[in-house]
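Re: the pair you flagged

First of the two:
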Amino acid sequence: MLRFCYRAVHPGYSREDEDRIFGSTDKRSAVTLRITDRPSSPTDKKGDVFNKYATYLGYGVIMRDKDSKKLEAVRPYFKEGTTLTLNLMFHSLSDNELKSVERSLWA
C-alpha cells in the first residue's frame, strides 16, 4: 500500500528510486514497519464477508471463496477503528528519500 501511495504522489518516479526505498526481489526495503501498542490479538473472524472495494487493502487477508464466490477473511485481522502504533525504521535513505516516504504516508 505504501508503494502504491509513493507512486501516486510521485508521478515521475523511476523504478530504480522506488526499489531503492521499498526494495525489490534483489534488495531488501530501506523502510521497516513495526506495529506496537496493539490489542493482544487480532480478531479471529475468519469468514467475515467484505465488499469488492476492501479486497485491495485486504490483500492476503481477504480472498474469494471458490464455492460461494463471496469475499471472505481467511486470516485474523484488526477491525477498523483499532488503535495501534506504527513505528517506521529507515536504513540508509537520503533526506529527499525520507521526505518521499513521509509524503507517501500522508497520501
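Second of the two:
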Amino acid sequence: MKTILLIDDNPVILQLITDILESEGYGLCVCNGSGIDCQGVADCIDLIISDVNMNCKPRSCLKSNVPVIYISGDCSLISHLKHEGKLALAKPFRIHELKELLDVVLSD
C-alpha cells in the first residue's frame, strides 16, 4: 500500500481528499498545518500532497526523492509551478484529475 502525506489547513479540503484517497486504498498521514511529526512514518511516505501556502515543512524529515503534488486556489501560482515542471492542481479540482495524477506519480 502506498502512503501519502496530506497537508492542508482547510478541514473541508482535508476531509474531501482523505475520503478520495482512502476509497482508492492509499494509506494516509494527515497534517492540518499545526506541524507534523514524521517520526515512524518518514520512511513510509511515497508522496506528499500539500497546499502551497503551508508553514508545515515535511521535507526536513522525509527522503529527498519523495514527489510532491502542490495544491492551491491561486491559479496563477499553479500555472507558475507547472511552468517550473512541478506537479500542481488548482483548487477546486475534479476527483478524476487527482486520480490521474496519482496514477502517473505512483505507478510502479
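Residues 11-23 form the longest helix (13 residues).

-B.
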